[in-house]
Amino acid sequence: MNSSKYKCREYLNLYDLDIELFKRFNLYVYDVVPVRKVFILRTDKGDKILKKIDYSIDDLRFIYTAMEYLKNNGFDRVINFIKTTEGYIYTIWNGEIYCIMDLLEGRECEYSNPVDIAITSRALGNMHKASSGFEYNIKSRYNLHKIIDNFERKLHKIMFFKEMVLLYDNTSKFDEIFLENVDYYIKQMNESLRILEHSKYHELCSEEDKIVLCHHDLAHHNILIKDEEAYFIDFDYSVLDLRVHDLCNFINKVIKNFAYDMEKTNQIIANYNNFDNLDNREMEVLYGMLYFPEDFYSICVNYYDTRKNWSEDIFIRRLIKKVDYKQDREEFLNNLA
């Protein structure tokens, strides 16, 4: 069984699908359809999304306020909350927080499709431009000045894993591949930190026009394509940060589908720049962020911290795939410099 589907099923079992819950949103629901960790509701007022919130009400208000700010600034291709009969964007039912949103129609973005990539790059630039100036007093959603410390913690984590595996009496195939490659990636992590420490990163974090609402979870299924436009959903992890934070995330997800093709990165940046050009300082910070081997780090953390319930074979295949791109990635970084 696919472990992610199993986890989603476990999570959906925690929902309390009660007609009285739907009445609080003045909805008559005649069918429910599970999709990932939410339910699509077929209602008398059109299709909706029911979501059980596993973060604070303050975080939910941050997301709602950010969505309204975007819409007021001309970018309406985001989620729309349905209010309760009492005018709230959520309700508490049996101790859990629920919200309902309009269902956005569209197909999921395909990162293997150059047209989808161009559409999404422009939309990301447009959304960032519309969010410029947004402020909200909630510490957990401010990510400024944190990237260097975050990368240092990740470096120390990988170094800890190395020391741990070297003590093993019996090593797995994953351990062996990890040890063969870890020093190379530790070197890249240190170089990423060196670039960022010598960049204008902290200076940029103090300039209002460089700070935007970052989606922070640009998986392909969180971007819907409809009528040649990109729509963004699921802002659960959204933060206020430098706009290159989102751009780095997006580039990393796309280029691994194209063997780290430099041309694809140039196209992403060119389309993004339709709304506001990145300056040289931002490009240097973007370079430093892209230098960090996030893919290698994430697979190792998922394995050694048991964050993913994958089989040993899946872990090994995914690690091999990531290290096989070592030369392509190196050439990419050299071209980007």
UniProtKB/TrEMBL annotation:
It comes from the Bacteria. InterPro entries: Aminoglycoside_PTrfase, CotS-like, Kinase-like_dom_sf, Spore_coat_CotS. GO terms for cellular component: endospore-forming forespore. Pfam families: APH (PF01636). Residues 38-257 form the Aminoglycoside phosphotransferase domain. Coiled coil: none annotated. Keywords: Capsid protein, Virion. This is Spore coat protein S. The lineage of its organism: Bacteria, Bacillati, Bacillota, Clostridia, Eubacteriales.
